[in-house]
Amino acid sequence: MQIGESNHGTILIVTVAGRLDSTTSPEFEKHILGRIEAGQTDILVDFAALDFISSAGLRVMLMAAKRVKAAKGRMALCGLNDNIAKVFEISGFLSIFTVYPDQQAALAATA
């Protein structure tokens, strides 16, 4: 798994590539929760390069979403491929997150 980040105004864009599973989710958890604890509460997670997400990855996403919501922030997702979107749909997570097709659409919607 590779994690990248950039900023667009006040929005932190976190890109995740590879696999988000029980092996890699602790690293992602530390990364994203660290940003939230540091006060970053407008977050866009770009999964365009994500190949796989397990229940461990979903748990981290849920934890992050709850912390962002408690801080009155916003967290959205973009770039879900068909397999990742299906995992989010089956798990009921599509009702938790606003999902955009890509970064451009997400940033346009929050402008």
UniProtKB/TrEMBL annotation:
CDD domains with a match to the protein in the record: STAS_anti-anti-sigma_factors
Q: Entry's InterPro entries?
A: Anti-sigma_ant, STAS_dom, STAS_dom_sf
* Source organism, top-level taxon: Bacteria
- Residues forming the STAS domain are 11-110
A single GO molecular function, which one? anti-sigma factor antagonist activity
NCBIfam families the UniProt entry points to: ant_ant_sig
Q: Which family does it belong to?
A: Belongs to the anti-sigma-factor antagonist family.
> In its UniProt entry, what is this protein called?
Anti-sigma factor antagonist
What is the originating organism of this protein?
A: Oceanibaculum pacificum
